[in-house]
Automatic annotation (TrEMBL), chains A, B:
Protein name, entry field: Acyl-ACP thioesterase
Highest rank taxon of the organism: Bacteria
Family: Belongs to the acyl-ACP thioesterase family.
GO MF assignments: acyl carrier activity; fatty acyl-[ACP] hydrolase activity
Keyword Hydrolase carried by entry: yes
Record-linked InterPro entries: Acyl-ACP_TE_C (IPR049427), Acyl-ACP_thioesterase_NHD (IPR002864), FATA/B (IPR045023), HotDog_dom_sf (IPR029069)
Alphabetic keyword roster: Fatty acid biosynthesis, Fatty acid metabolism, Hydrolase, Lipid biosynthesis, Lipid metabolism, Transit peptide
Species: Latilactobacillus sakei subsp. sakei (strain 23K)
Entry's EC annotation: 3.1.2.14
CDD domains in UniProt: 4HBT (cd00586)
Residue ranges of domain Acyl-ACP thioesterase N-terminal hotdog in the record: 3-132
Residue ranges of every copy of the Acyl-ACP thioesterase-like C-terminal domain listed in the record: 151-247
Hydrolase is among the record's keywords: yes
Length: 248, 248
């Protein structure tokens, strides 16, 4: 048993794709999270319920395997399930399939519940989890370790947080981190490679007007072109990631 | 007779809304253009036809009246029609209604046809226009004049064009101009006001890596809080706009 599955169709609009006409990482996460919100609403544990408990969901980690990104106008099928949870962590899976049923993307994620009162993490509320039929587990699921970037060898671009980077929760929507991470790479590198996997872990929140530093280092790991990333505001790390690439 | 109308439903996802939970100007234009592309496809004069003729559509001007922006999760109805055209200009209208049938947004626009061969404007191809049942007109439709910004009195922010600002046409998708224009305003101003009308005219294209200057000037016009905007790359103007606001 691994949680009740929720499925929806999604047609990729042109404005969620990049110069290659492929869904961007930021838009991928947007549409996956949208599907999970729809599941929460369907099961009557959506925003309203969370608000009444003064609670919010916060993602702490994504691990993505990308066979290929769907292209503009493609009809995709999105599937999600709240697989399991322990005292503090909820594990949710997402799949994106193409029309022929091929798995394009698989994402594992970790969410925690945050109290809006104390702005800190609280134990998972079992009543919220019940309708998902997720497995209650004792231990923690292992996600691959994200190796620290070597700041000495990294290059860096700076990004000022803009008004439209801020969402209804009054802080930067973390999908923007993908744009800052990837944009820090060279144009030619981005044109010649495509992402095959992403591991990202989130830390401190970022506020309007702050200057963020997006550091990137290119390394070969077992013959795989890999980039290590860090988005920070001064000494505070907002996200660290490891991305694997293949030549187009 | 004012052109065959095309209608579609659209539910506003959270990631197309701002800190207030309202559809952003950039996303508004994205979803309107998406509807017009769907009409083009329905009438068999879509991208494929245009590509075979080595032609593309370029918008030169929008005039928007915004009664209110739809909010996250609202179901909107989008209507569009290619109203009329003369030798060089095509006039297309868009409406966005809420579920109760109230008009939220009305947009008039001017499009031209561009040759990919010469990268310049060509006379409208009548075969492309035929299925829209648009009116062929002699004169030009008048759009309100956009008054020049007073650069002496304007404030300015700079934006480096990022990889994800570039679309499949290899240049900056012009919806990003709205972000640069509005972000140049103060946070408090944006929080306290909402847009009631936009007039924008496009000029030179912008390329990857360029630094753009977004200038803004606040003026009162007939008791209406108005901002004048210019997005430029050095001496080249990419867009000029006049936006009217009301207190929230």
């Amino acid at each position: 048993m691994a949680g009740k599955q929720y499925t929806e169709e999604y047609r990729i609009p042109y404005f969620e794709t990049d110069i290659k006409g492929e869904l961007t990482l930021a838009s991928l996460v947007n549409v996956l999270i949208l599907a999970s919100e729809h599941q929460l609403n369907d099961l009557n544990v959506g925003e309203e319920t969370m608000h009444s408990l003064n609670l919010g969901w916060v993602v702490t980690q994504y691990q993505m395997t990308i066979n290929r990104m769907p292209k503009v106008d493609e009809k995709a099928r999105i599937v999600t399930e709240a697989e399991s949870y322990n005292r503090y962590f909820c594990y949710r899976n997402f799949w994106l399939y193409d029309e022929a049923g091929n798995e394009c993307v698989f994402v594992q994620s970790i969410f925690v519940m945050m109290s809006y009162e104390t702005r800190s993490m609280v134990p998972v509320v079992p009543e919220i989890m019940a309708p998902f039929e997720s497995m209650a587990i004792k231990g923690s699921k292992r996600f691959p370790r994200i190796k620290k970037i070597d700041s000495e060898k990294a290059s860096q671009k700076e990004y000022r947080v803009r008004y439209f980077d801020i969402d209804g929760n009054q802080h930067v929507n973390n999908v923007h981190y993908f744009e800052w991470m990837l944009d820090a790479l060279d144009y030619d590198f981005l044109m010649d490679h495509r992402v095959t996997s992403v591991n990202i872990r989130y830390g401190h929140e970022i506020q309007y007007g702050q200057m963020t530093q997006s550091q990137v280092e290119q390394v070969m790991v077992d013959d795989i072109m890999t980039t290590r990333h860090k988005v920070a505001v001064g000494d505070l790390s907002a996200a660290e990631a490891e991305i694997a690439w293949t030549k187009r």
